[in-house]
């Protein structure tokens, strides 16, 4: 029964933002709730927010959020802090797979998250270090640089003025000197920059939950793992959710537990799988970057497997970096001496949040001197944990488990299948790319949940109406046909993996 590891590595986001809600429990578990949300991260917090925002005053549903561990201790509290919409880098693939209209729909939905975050944070006065500027792709080989710039040119040729109207100001260069200056990454052979931002995700989620706890009928329960979801043995059209602290009945159950959704919903076994990422927080002390106002963020691309991404928080004199695929992806050799397929076991299908990858600390400590333009600091950088002079266990080096879905798209909507007639919903499978997808996906899901409860949704907050939020992209939707397709793909993938192992 896959559940999160009980003693995960210490995340900078969590250790440096102490919250009274970390281990919060509203009291004894209620016997009944209208909506039960399993998982207490970004998905749960924004869904609960929208449910309250869209509910009429005389029909506000009761909401209970529970998590197996502490509040926001999963992927949201362990990610990279990037708010980086996908646009040019996926346009061609999405257009080929889904058609141009849907490719635009997917990009518009992601890009809309930037003004949506700005408006929500301002409206609710959330302290979460949101900053919008530009995010860069630094291409570390000529081949990747040519590919990245060609992607921009291809999107502009196909969509014309739509690019400037929707995506915004896109900058592309094949000049290595300019690429290094723009991205601040040594050795960059080219670069593309698009509007993007960064955020302290843990603060954002805890800020939303603190607001929700001020409203009647909302409960939050840490350390309450859901064990099983069964039809209730009565005629009330409810579900019984067995937890480690007792049973709770709900009219609507929402799986917001991302990688661990398969634990309770067997439809997603092999369809949504684990992907462990490696992160570090680096002190800028002693470097030329220290004490400045640089709001830099970039990704390094060598190929489809090896990449890094960094985000700076100058107000905390800290740089957060993730990736280290050079450590996580290991070469293999066949018995005949030829190179085998890369060993991805430290990365894919890996739930080891309780340990850092061998070699990760040394890699990250040496990264600024090796890869940052104008670093000028110590050759071995300090980790930015609660006690930087101590070991990595104080928050400067950590792992987090993301999810991969078999078709690379999340699942958002009612779970319509042979096992479930009504009343179960899913929002999971974010592919390590939830920040520019979840806020507006749960906006759509909230309306679906309220409709299932028989509640007529209101127009919602004025700030959201003013934004004209895009509809949920069609590839996100859950349908029996899509479930059949991805289940078959998961079986084929498993069979191919077993065949490949047999050849080694």
Automatic annotation (TrEMBL):
InterPro entries, sorted: FAD-dep_OxRdtase, FAD/NAD-bd_sf
Residue ranges of every copy of the FAD dependent oxidoreductase domain listed in the record: 34-435
Pfam families xrefs: DAO
Superkingdom of source: Eukaryota
Cellular component GO terms held in the UniProt record: cytoplasm
Region span, Disordered: 331-359
Protein name as annotated: Oxidoreductase OrdL
Biological source species: Vanrija pseudolonga
Organism lineage string: Eukaryota, Fungi, Dikarya, Basidiomycota, Agaricomycotina
Gene it is expressed from: ordL_1
């Amino acid at each position: 029964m896959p559940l999160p590891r009980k003693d995960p590595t210490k995340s900078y986001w969590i250790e440096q933002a102490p919250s009274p809600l970390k281990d919060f429990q509203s009291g004894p578990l209620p016997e009944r709730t209208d909506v039960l949300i399993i998982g207490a991260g970004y998905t749960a917090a924004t869904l609960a927010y929208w449910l309250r925002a869209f509910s009429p005053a005389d029909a506000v549903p009761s909401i209970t959020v529970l998590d197996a561990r502490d509040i926001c201790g999963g992927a949201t509290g362990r990610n990279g802090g990037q708010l980086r919409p996908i646009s040019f880098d996926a346009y061609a693939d999405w257009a080929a797979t889904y058609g141009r209209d849907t490719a635009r729909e997917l990009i518009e939905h992601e890009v809309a998250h930037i003004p949506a975050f700005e408006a929500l944070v301002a409206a609710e006065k959330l302290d979460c270090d949101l900053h919008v500027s530009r995010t860069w792709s630094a291409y570390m080989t000529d081949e990747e640089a040519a590919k990245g710039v060609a992607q921009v040119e291809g999107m502009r040729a196909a969509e014309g003025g739509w690019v400037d109207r929707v995506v915004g100001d896109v900058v592309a260069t094949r000049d290595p000197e300019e690429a290094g200056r723009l991205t601040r990454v040594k050795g960059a052979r080219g670069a593309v920059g698009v509007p993007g931002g960064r955020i302290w995700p843990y603060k954002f989620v805890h800020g939303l939950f603190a607001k929700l706890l001020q409203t009647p009928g909302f409960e939050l329960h840490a350390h309450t793992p859901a064990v099983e979801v069964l039809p209730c043995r009565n005629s009330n059209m409810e579900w019984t959710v067995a937890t480690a602290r007792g049973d709770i009945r709900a009219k609507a159950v929402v799986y917001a537990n991302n990688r661990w959704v398969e634990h309770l919903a067997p439809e997603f076994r092999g369809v949504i799988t684990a992907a462990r990422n490696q992160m570090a927080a680096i002190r800028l002390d002693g470097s030329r970057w220290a004490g400045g106002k640089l709001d830099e963020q970039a990704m390094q691309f060598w190929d489809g497997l090896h990449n890094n991404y960094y985000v700076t928080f100058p107000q905390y004199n800290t740089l957060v970096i993730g990736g280290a695929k050079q450590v996580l992806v290991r070469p293999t050799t066949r018995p005949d001496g030829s190179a085998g397929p890369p060993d991805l076991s430290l990365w894919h299908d890996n739930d080891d949040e309780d340990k850092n990858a061998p070699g990760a600390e040394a890699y990250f400590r040496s990264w600024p001197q090796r890869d940052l333009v104008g670093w000028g600091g110590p050759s071995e950088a300090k980790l930015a944990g609660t006690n930087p002079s101590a070991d990595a266990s104080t928050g400067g080096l950590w792992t987090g488990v993301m999810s991969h879905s078999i078709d690379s798209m999340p699942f958002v909507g009612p779970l319509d299948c042979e096992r479930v007639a009504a009343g179960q919903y899913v929002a999971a499978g974010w592919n390590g790319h939830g920040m520019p997808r979840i806020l507006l996906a749960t906006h759509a899901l909230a309306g679906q949940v309220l409709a299932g409860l028989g509640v007529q949704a209101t127009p919602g907050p004025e700030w959201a109406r003013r934004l004209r939020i895009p509809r949920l992209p069609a590839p996100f939707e859950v349908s029996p046909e899509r479930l059949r397709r991805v289940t078959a793909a998961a079986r084929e993938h498993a069979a191919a993996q077993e065949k490949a192992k047999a050849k080694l």
